[in-house]
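ok so I'm stuck.
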Amino acid sequence: MVDNPLIVQSDKTLLLDVHAEKAEQARAAIIPFAELEKSPEHIHTYRITPLSLWNAASAGFRPGDIAKVLAEYSRYSVPSGIVESFSDTMSRYGKIRMIAAPESAAAADKDTLFLEIADRAVLAEVEAIKPLEKYLTKIDKGFLIRLIDRGTVKQALIRQGWPVQDEAPLVSGDNLEITLRDKCLSGKPFAPRNYQIEAAMSVLGDGRPGTGYGVVALPCGSGKTIVGMIIMSLLKTNTLILTTNVAAVHQWIDELIDKTEISRDQLAEYSGDSKSVAPVTIATYQIITWRPGRDSDFPHFRIFRERHWGLIIYDEVHLLPAPVFRVTAELQAVRRLGLTATLIREDSAEDAVFSLVGPKRYDVPWKELEGKGWIAEAVCTEIRIDLPEKLKIPYAVASKREKYRIASENPLKEEIVSQLIENHGDDQILVIGQYLSQLDSLAKLIKAPLITGKTPNAERERIYGDFKRGEIRIIVVSKVANFAIDLPDASMAVQVSGSFGSRQEEAQRLGRILRPKGKNAKHRNALFFTLVSRYTVEEDFAANRHKFLAEQGYKYSIQHWDTIK
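replied:
not stuck anymore, here's the structure
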């Protein structure tokens, strides 16, 4: 139909006309099996990749389901052969199954698994993969592998284009009674939302082989932590939670105490500040990946073996550091949950998350939750400003990296920040940036507290507490506030500088202001401003960063400061 929003091309790209009547429905329908690539004003480009198809296959999508979506929303005829190519890629998922070793295998024991490959050609191909030789013992229709090599083998195979359907047994871990409260300690009624329960059940499934692990992708502010607590309450087992920083550790502890019957002595913090272990232990990625020297072992990896864990929760799984992949490979028998707002990794290691934590089990469009009032409505605006005359020559002769810094630290941004704060006198505001000298100058100008990586944890939490209570209205924060910080009253963010085109960072920064606003809030929506120097490389990086926002359905307007001030 000529009014349909989607143009399907033979190179597996999808062009979405954002002005077409069914654009939002089409966007929601293709997200499970396509990845956003470009998002200018009128036409957004998505690409269907092997990993996006394997994620779809693991979620139960079939080639016919994808063909039906494309046919329903395509403006023109779907190119012949494209659906068949999807079938070829998706059929690779399930060709290799990882299951319990057969009792008939001479070398089989409880620490041995079986890589079942019925197709003789695939069997021969796997046998010829040199990096896998030392892990595989060939028997009829497959290979025996050691339990400890479970993740390593899966990761190597997906790099060869063979995603493993993991149906090997999972351990239960030590028992721990975990019950959700009906009423929070704060006195507010507590009941998980429908989508949170659906997300939890999508990971646990029916308990059969192939369930009990995977990734849940939900917007910041939608209660990913509660999904983790639901799963904990259903499994009732010792749980290890890995998260990004000490503030996030304390938030997990506070949430668990507030919303579950877990006692304080059953919770432990394992971080740079405190290193104890309990039935539920919350650790930072930073401490477990610390080592005294480049060639040294990771001494804190022992936390993974100090208890019989039955569940590992990877908070902000898109940030899972590469060293954790190694020990995660040894813990494949444990049920595992990845929580994230976006599976975008700046190191392009999405396939590692797929192999070692699990496929994406649940995803819901941000705009869908916004429409139901579960997260705040966001208005995203990019404000472009000129460089001062005195910086134009230094910018012209600078290296690319220096060009970005000059553009990011454009001193005219201070005037705009001050004016935006004055214009929005009722909002709780975060001013977010990359460069400390810029942030320090801004904090002094607007007389607001500054939080950076050097701010002691106790001081950070004091400032966050003052902000939550409304005792201060503005905080200036560096990238330390990108992740896992709960500031429910923040209603506006001004981004003065950011990492080099990081879509992941853009998602997290927007997430700081998406917590739903209370009925008595002066503004129910969230305002997200990004300041960008005009005619500079900062424009290019800003275009890349807002890809994620466009993928989630947010309109991203671009305005020039001299026309709106």
